User: Which sequence fits this backbone?
């Protein structure tokens, strides 16, 4: 630690950092624009000028840019110095020269970093009376609005979009005061992280288009800490509600999980909550006649089902509480996992890996530290996008190492990049097809599963001679040697794989990690991705052997006559014929869900469930980290949280249920640790969900009745559905929207951090549920299903889409605009052999379904990547497929797929 | 002159007149106050706003008659009726004119004083039974104030009694028949009685028991509806009573030339009522301690001296 | 005792006399419905929404009035026309809560919301004091005749493209490198 003097006060700072970062860490107010906690300094905006003195006698001092100056021991600086203040006021005055008079009609207004900094710097009167520079805007797709006039040229957008997130279609154009940030032509921003531009841009150039359609100011939104339900990463979010509809989602900082960024699925895929299709009332269907039920009557039906010995089918998108309540209701033996059997098997393997102390499930922060990565048959960008962004950072560790060797501080972003040029840490992609991370991959192996397993076995064997190998070793010995050496020599190697890889490949990948452990004798980072938000929680809850097929068998055989399906569309989990056969037999099907699905159409009793923002819940992410998501707003229909339909006491508090889950569900013992410590809140006061500036309280509902209703009381949590209570200024575990005096934008988060990029003060990063038990120490035996593919058939590899593969976000209008119909991706050589062209429509074997042909250069020959969309029954697909061209006219082909950026464009 | 004692018609008409006059005083007071404050006062309801009283009555009758759950029910209900009853009873001995009165009592003056003492119970009961700290403070102040001022109120009129040689109010009036109103020999007694009378009826400036700037509304804070109305009208009844007594004791009652006796009485009493309202318009409320000091250290010695001097003069002239 | 008597006459009796003499002074009261009072133009009375000189709604639904309102009696929702103008989808003032403080007018960046000298706003039914945009919007510019927000702001709307607002140069050609 170094001691520096700021305005006469002595502070302890970290000498590895720059002055700006350390001033902010100390809670001091120093204006800045171009610096970003995650992206370092480039010294572009000149806004953070401070006075530096040579020694205690020096009275004159000199102006330095805090973000470009290392904090060194004994340094004397002044923020409040008149000359420094004048400098900052003049700098912002010149930055504002062409800024339009837009604040009232700007979505950023009220949470604008530029507004905050202008106020903080003391510039309040416009002296420049010449003409302002103006720009034309571009259409940037359904997510982002462009208003280029507002730009102050801080370069944060391109630094994030290109340098950090690996985008290629946003760039700085033109020169001097004409500098323009946009695409080379109008069109959809391709990056799956484009939504972060809204938060990264310090002013209103890039704004949230989805939010703008039903816009409210930041202070008018009712917010609470929540968890994204888009995938298994469990990013922390802050949803905002107004006038009974969910308006937007912004990032909520969690030092271990998502940091400062979200993916576009998480940010824009929330609007299913507002869908007019949402189920609102309990319904009973008797002989085709639908009757609406009162809540109490519906509850009684649930108990009738229980008495009838119903089996329960849980869901990976339901909370732990709902799954637990269902398991309690039907009994452990009757509780089945509501996921496809292959997936369930993968999840169980994942559970065994999570329990094995040989492995370590890395958080996103830890993934960013990996300096050799092996990704095995998982399209991370499309299944867990935030992890892909972290992997993209991990390859920069080479650059960081080089900078360290040259004694260049890590925050000198431009210098570090300049030094490293294209030097990247090794990142090796093994898969059936190339993915979006291709552009940072050092090695690629595009092959069918059999070969992947063989190569993985080879790599494991090359690392540890004790690893099992195959009878026929792979011919790719050069690749095997290179990858095994990279992993062995790395400071922190990382293997990434997932449930979508297939259980055999997953095991083979785990063997590589085990081999690394055998030689390195330390826990090896093994990141196994799960498919949905609570897949891991469901796997922990479900007894082994209770897969979906077993449940369907029981129903089909008539052993069980009644079934309760919790927030699950069975038709997405098993083939239509299988599900139909089972559901046609049951005499009672009770479905609890938020939106109508194919399963709800078959329900005898249909109970409406609340969405993620309408209830408090816990979810377990891919690492086994349980996180608490608070209720943001109330549901105004008869919908109840899934568990509330299933418990016997109608007034049970959710916290009590979480406690009882922690006590009685095996593996969940630490679940209650996610609950906030209520003793730290002032005098038992609630924490308001509404900001102190929340407006319209006495007018919002006055058109219905001029007499204001009593403020709703939240009996479940420490939060209140009103402005009443003590806002969470210091306790970040219940922090909704971050706000601090003078800091209205999301940059206010620095006021809640221990230090910049550190943990939140008293913040909760979640609780690891899975206890490491003793290691089995044994390698998985290698099993390869040799699918002897007949001539003319192609092996099926399932493809995923960030926009579309997730069931709920795919119901959001903005996401729908980015979704593609079902397609098959095939290698050009295969296409040529079959006489297919991009855009052709083909029949998928004899399933009767059709899909559009997309040519993929980096695709294993003899393999077809099938993206099923809504149209194709994924579980009905055979393992090998014959493609037949249909008579339908071929279209122009698909564009905007988030696949392998570097190569797809060339076709 | 003989009273037609027990004449139901007489009693009824006096009762009615007194209550109506008291009620109308609400309007009179508001109009007079506004006159002295350069305003107009109530002038919307009926001609000159005369029906304002009716409007107020309708309002007060239709208000929710609420007894606080924490109050002592019996005394809470009893208190406002006590003040009405004692003041109305006091009127029974007042000779308004020859032949107009209820009782021709030989101990009229004592009766009035006795009734005034009973009035203190009303205020105290009301305050205590409300179980409200402002009401309690108000009733404590009222008790102290009324008990204190009663002393020299009584002493101050003993001079008149001595001069007239009777406790009978009618005879006191007749003793002034020659035009020698007792206000002249008993000027000091008159002033003391006037001040004590204001204090007894806790009118401004001596409305310390209900000083709204300090203790909300004092002893009747918790009262509403008709029960509050009774306190309210009771205060005006007290005002009429004190004015009538001053007229009787010091200003020759109904005596006067040309006009009928009852008219003279009404004119004289009205003058004093107007004077009381002027007091309210002009003089600010003293502090509680000032009131007590003034009573015990100034008025009491003064009234005793007055009594002794009067006695000495009467003895020396006999 | 002498001093007391002196004080009584110089203070209390004098006061009584002076107050009594007020009886002969003309009353100051204005008899309101018969004699309408003069209302100053900047009187803070009934709130209206004005239109700009082109006859379009001035309100851009920026929410600042709602935020400034100390009794939170203004509620509105932003919407956008095809050509990019912001406008309130609904704009509601609950006059039964309004305290006529005028903060909304001060906060308004477009001079849309204005307080007028009309103060006769009583209603027999409280529900009638809730006014919607249709009730609030007038066909005029109110107190400020010339101001047109969109002529100053940088947003493009119909009839005013980029670079056509006050103090604006025409949009730059991104492909030019000329100074």
Assistant:
């Amino acid at each position: 630690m170094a001691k520096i003097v700021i305005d006469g006060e002595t502070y302890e700072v970290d000498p590895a950092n720059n002055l700006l970062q350390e001033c902010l860490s100390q809670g001091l107010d120093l204006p800045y624009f171009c610096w970003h906690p995650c992206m370092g300094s480039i010294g572009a905006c000149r806004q953070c000028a401070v006075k530096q003195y040579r020694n205690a006698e020096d009275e004159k001092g000199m102006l330095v840019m805090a973000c470009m100056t290392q904090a060194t021991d004994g340094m004397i600086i002044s923020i409040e110095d008149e000359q420094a203040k004048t400098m900052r006021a003049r700098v912002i005055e010149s930055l504002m020269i062409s800024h339009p008079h837009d604040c009232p009609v700007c979505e950023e207004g009220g949470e604008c970093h530029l507004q905050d900094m202008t106020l903080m710097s003391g510039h309040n009167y416009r002296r420049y009376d010449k003409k302002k520079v103006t720009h034309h805007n571009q259409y940037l797709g359904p997510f982002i609005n462009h208003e280029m006039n507002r730009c102050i040229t801080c370069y944060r957008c391109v630094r994030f979009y290109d340098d950090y997130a690996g985008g290629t279609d946003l760039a700085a154009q033109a020169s001097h005061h004409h500098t323009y940030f946009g695409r080379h032509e109008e069109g959809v921003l391709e990056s799956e992280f484009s939504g972060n531009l809204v938060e990264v841009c310090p002013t209103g150039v890039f704004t949230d288009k989805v939010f703008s359609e039903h816009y409210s100011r930041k202070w008018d939104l009712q917010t609470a800490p929540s968890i994204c339900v888009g995938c298994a990463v469990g990013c922390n979010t802050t949803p905002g509600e107004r006038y009974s509809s969910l308006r937007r989602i912004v990032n909520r900082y969690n030092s271990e999980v998502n940091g400062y960024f979200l993916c576009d699925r998480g940010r824009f895929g929330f609007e299913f909550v507002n869908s007019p299709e949402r189920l609102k009332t309990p319904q009973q269907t008797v002989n085709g006649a639908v009757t609406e039920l009162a809540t109490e009557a519906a509850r009684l039906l649930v108990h009738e089902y229980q008495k009838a010995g119903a089996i329960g089918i849980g869901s990976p998108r339901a909370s732990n509480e709902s799954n637990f309540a269902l398991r309690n209701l039907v009994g452990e033996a009757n509780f089945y996992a509501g996921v496809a059997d292959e997936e369930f098997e993968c999840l169980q393997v994942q559970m065994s890996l999570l329990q094995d102390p040989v492995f370590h499930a890395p958080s996103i922060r830890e993934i960013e530290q990996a300096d050799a990565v092996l990704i095995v048959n998982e399209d991370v960008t499309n299944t867990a996008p935030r992890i892909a962004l972290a992997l993209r950072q991990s390859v920069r560790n080479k650059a960081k190492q080089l900078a360290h060797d040259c004694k260049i501080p890590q925050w000198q972003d431009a210098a570090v990049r300049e030094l490293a040029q294209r030097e990247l840490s090794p990142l090796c992609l093994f898969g059936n097809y190339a993915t979006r991370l291709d552009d940072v991959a050092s090695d690629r192996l595009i092959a069918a599963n059999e070969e992947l397993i063989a190569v993985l076995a080879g790599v494991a064997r090359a690392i540890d001679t004790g690893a099992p190998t195959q009878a026929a070793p792979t011919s790719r010995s050069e690749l095997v040697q290179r990858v095994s050496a990279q992993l062995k020599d790395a400071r922190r190697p990382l293997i990434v794989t997932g449930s979508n890889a297939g259980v055999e490949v997953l095991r083979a990948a785990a063997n590589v990690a085990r081999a690394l452990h055998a030689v390195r004798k330390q826990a090896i980072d093994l990141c196994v991705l799960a498919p949905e938000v609570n897949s891991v929680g469901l796997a922990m809850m479900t007894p082994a052997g209770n897969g979906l097929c077993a449940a369907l068998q029981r129903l089909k055989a008539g052993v069980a006559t009644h079934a309760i399906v919790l927030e699950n569309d069975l038709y997405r989990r098993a083939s239509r014929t299988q599900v139909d056969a089972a559901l046609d037999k049951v005499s009672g099907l009770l479905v609890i869900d938020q939106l109508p699905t194919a399963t709800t159409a078959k329900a005898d009793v249909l109970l409406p469930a609340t969405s993620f923002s309408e209830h408090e819940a816990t979810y377990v992410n891919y690492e086994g980290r349980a996180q608490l998501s608070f209720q943001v707003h109330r549901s105004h229909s008869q919908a109840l949280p899934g568990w509330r339909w299933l418990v016997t006491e109608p007034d049970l508090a959710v916290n009590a249920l979480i406690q009882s889950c922690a006590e009685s569900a095996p593996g969940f013992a630490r679940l209650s640790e996610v609950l906030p410590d209520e003793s730290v809140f002032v005098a038992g006061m609630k924490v308001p969900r509404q900001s102190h500036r929340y407006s319209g309280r006495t007018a919002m509902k006055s058109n219905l009745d001029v007499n204001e209703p009593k403020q709703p009381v939240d009996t479940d949590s420490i939060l209140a559905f009103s402005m009443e209570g003590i806002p969470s200024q210091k306790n970040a575990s219940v922090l909704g929207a971050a706000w601090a005096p003078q800091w209205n934008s999301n940059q206010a988060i620095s006021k809640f951090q221990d230090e910049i990029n550190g943990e939140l003060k008293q913040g909760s990063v979640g609780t690891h549920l899975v206890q490491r038990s003793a290691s089995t120490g044994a390698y998985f035996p290698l099993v390869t299903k040799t699918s002897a593919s007949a001539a003319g058939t192609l092996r099926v590899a399932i493809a995923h889409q960030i926009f579309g593969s997730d069931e709920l976000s795919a119901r959001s209008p903005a996401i729908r605009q980015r979704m593609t119909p079902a397609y098959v991706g095939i290698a050009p050589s295969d296409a040529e052999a079959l006489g297919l062209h991009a855009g052709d429509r083909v029949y998928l074997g004899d399933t009767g379904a059709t899909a559009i042909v997309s040519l993929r250069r980096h695709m294993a020959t003899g393999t077809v990547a099938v993206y099923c969309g809504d149209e194709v029954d994924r579980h009905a697909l055979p393992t090998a497929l014959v493609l037949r061209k249909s008579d339908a006219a071929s279209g122009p082909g698909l564009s905007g797929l988030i696949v392998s950026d570097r190569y797809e464009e060339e076709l | 002159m003989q009273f037609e004692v027990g004449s139901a018609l007489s009693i009824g008409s006096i009762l009615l007149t007194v209550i109506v006059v008291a009620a109308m005083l609400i309007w009179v007071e508001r109009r007079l106050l506004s006159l002295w404050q350069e305003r107009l006062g109530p002038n919307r309801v009926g001609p000159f706003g005369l029906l304002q009283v009716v409007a107020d009555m309708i309002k007060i009758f239709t208000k929710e008659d609420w007894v606080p759950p924490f109050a002592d029910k019996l005394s809470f209900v009893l208190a406002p009726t006590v003040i009405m009853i004692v003041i109305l009873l006091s009127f029974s001995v007042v000779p308004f004119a020859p032949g107009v009165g209820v009782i021709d009592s030989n101990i009229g003056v004592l009766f009035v004083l006795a009734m005034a003492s009973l009035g203190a119970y009303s205020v105290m009961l009301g305050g205590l039974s409300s179980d409200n700290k402002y009401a309690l403070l108000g009733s404590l102040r009222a008790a102290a104030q009324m008990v204190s001022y009663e002393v020299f109120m009584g002493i101050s009129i003993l001079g008149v009694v001595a001069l007239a040689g009777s406790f009978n109010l009618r005879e006191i009036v007749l003793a002034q028949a020659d035009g020698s109103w007792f206000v002249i020999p008993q000027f000091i007694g008159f002033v003391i009685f006037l001040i004590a009378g204001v204090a007894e009826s806790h009118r401004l400036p001596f409305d310390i028991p209900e000083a709204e700037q300090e203790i909300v509304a004092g002893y009747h804070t918790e009262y509403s509806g008709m029960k509050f109305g009774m306190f309210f009208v009771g205060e005006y009844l007290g005002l009429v009573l004190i004015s009538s007594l001053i007229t009787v004791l010091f200003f020759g009652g109904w005596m006067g030339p040309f006009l009928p006796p009852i008219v003279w009485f009404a004119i004289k009493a009205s003058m004093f009522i107007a004077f009381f309202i002027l007091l309210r318009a002009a003089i600010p409320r003293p502090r509680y301690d000032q009131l007590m000091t003034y009573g015990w250290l100034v008025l009491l010695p003064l009234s005793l001296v007055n009594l002794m001097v009067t006695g000495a003069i009467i003895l020396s002239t006999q | 005792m002498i001093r007391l008597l002196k004080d009584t006459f110089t203070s209390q009796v004098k006061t009584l006399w002076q107050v009594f003499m007020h009886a002969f002074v003309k009353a100051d009261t204005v008899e309101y419905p018969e004699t309408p009072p003069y209302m100053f133009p900047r009187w803070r009375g009934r709130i209206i929404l004005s239109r700009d000189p082109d006859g379009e709604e001035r309100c851009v639904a920026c929410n600042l009035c709602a935020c400034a309102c100390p009794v939170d009696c203004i509620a509105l929702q932003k919407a956008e026309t095809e050509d990019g103008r912001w406008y309130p989808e609904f704009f509601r003032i609950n006059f039964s809560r309004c305290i006529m403080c005028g903060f909304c007018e001060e906060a308004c960046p477009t001079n849309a919301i204005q307080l007028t000298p009309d103060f006769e706003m009583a209603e027999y039914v409280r529900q009638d004091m809730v006014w919607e945009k249709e009730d609030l919007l007038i066909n005029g510019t109110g107190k400020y005749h010339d101001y047109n927000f969109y002529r100053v702001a940088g947003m493009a709307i119909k009839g005013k493209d980029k670079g056509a607002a006050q103090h604006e140069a025409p949009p730059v050609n991104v492909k030019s490198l000329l100074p």
Observations:
- The longest strand of chain A covers residues 236-242.
- The domain at 794-904 of chain A is CATH 2.40.40.20 (Barwin-like endoglucanases).
- Chain A touches chain C through 49 residues (CB under 8 Å).
